[in-house]
Amino acid sequence: MNRIDLIKTIEQIDFGSETWEWLDLMETIAGELQKEAMIQEKGFRADTPYKKYLLCAINKDLQTINATYFLLRCEMIHQAASHVRLFCESLITMRYVAMERESRAAQFWGYMGIEAYKVTEALLELESPTANPEHVLRMVKFKESIKPAHEKARPHYSYEDKKKRVRPFINWCNKSVSVQAQQCGKRYSRLYNSVYRQMSAYIHGSAWSLRRQLSYSRDHYDPRVVLIDISSMIRTLAAVWVEWATFCCEELGWRLQNTIIFVQETVSDLDNKHFG
After folding, report:
1. What angle in degrees, to the nearest 10, is found between the helix axes of 77-99 and 101-110?
2. Is there a single domain that holds both residue 48 and residue 124?
3. What range does the domain containing 214 cover?
4. Which of 68, 237, 244, 259 could, after both became Cys, cross-link 83 (CB 3.0–4.6 A)?
5. Contact (CB, 8 A) for 267 and 238
6. Considering the domain boundaries, does residue 4 fall inside one?
7. Residue 69 lies in a domain
8. Could you say which of 133, 168, 203 is where a domain stops?
9. What is the DSSP string of the chain?
10. What domain count does the chain have?
11. What is the pLDDT of residues 113-148, one digit of tens each?
12. Does 206 reside within a domain?
């Protein structure tokens, strides 16, 4: 079986010089961030639930940024939008946890017992009718083995509604991303309203998000549309990244202040240069 040559596939996609300037900015963001993360990781000890949470969340966010660059490099705009939204959501949750770091970090990790049980139940429901009975039996036994942890955790992730009925939390903190953003302050609420909602339109395949899809086809390819879409994604990610980098500087002493200024100035310069 012949494997797809990813390098060759990417090299076949050619951009104009203006689009490359935005992609170069994205590459700078990813590169500088990776260098600082490697420096900071050497002396970092994840010896509390909060520090463990930051280590895992930041590692995931680094991968999200790299994935966004790769997807944009392949002109996968909608897929890149999903990662920009994921990055925004991660930042909001990080700030929300940091506001009451020890108690909320413990609450975050404690929800794992609930999630593991839910995932196992969903897999059993999906696979039981068609899967190998032996595999189903193993999954049933696994479900029983994690049930005590689920039952122990459940009271901590339930609440009484107005009619005194016990309801499960919608997530680990029982607050939507929107509510978390509001409680984090105006800057985060503004990010949610401008970034999260806009990227959601791409993810859910709204008519607005599909309006320029033909411009990526072979017969109707439009470099100007590609420039607008890619610059919009990178501009949006940069807005989230500035807040994310500021958070890391404040919470962990990262040295990204100069890069923050460079990113802000470059976005402004490219906007003026390309869109007047």
Report:
1. 130
2. no
3. 11-108+185-275
4. 68
5. yes
6. no
7. yes
8. 168
9. -PPP-HHHHHHT----HHHHHHHHHHHHHHHHHHHHHHHHHTT----SHHHHHHHHHHHHHHHHHHHHHHHHHTT-HHHHHHHHHHHHHHHHHHHHHHHTHHHHHHHHHHTHHHHHHHHHHHHHHHHTTTS-HHHHHHHHHHHHHHHHHHHHHGGGGEEE-TTS-EEE-SSSSS--HHHHHHHH-HHHHHHIIIIIHHHHHHHTT-TTTTTTGGGGSSSS--HHHHHHHHHHHHHHHHHHHHHHHHHHHHHH----HHHHHHHHHHHHHHHHHHH-
10. 2
11. 999 999 999 999 988 888 898 998 999 999 999 999
12. yes
Asked if residue 63 and residue 102 are part of one domain, the reply reads: yes
C-alpha gyration radius of the chain? 22
Amino acid (1-letter code) at residue 136 = V
Give the number of residues written for the chain: 276
Q: Is residue 153 part of a domain?
A: yes
Backbone φ and ψ of 131, nearest 5° = -75, 165
Q: Nearest-CA neighbor of 238 among 223, 259, 224?
A: 259
pLDDT digits (tens, 9 = 90+) for 192-218: 999 988 898 888 888 988 888 889 888
- The answer, as to whether pTM is greater than 0.90, is yes
Same domain, 229 and 128: no
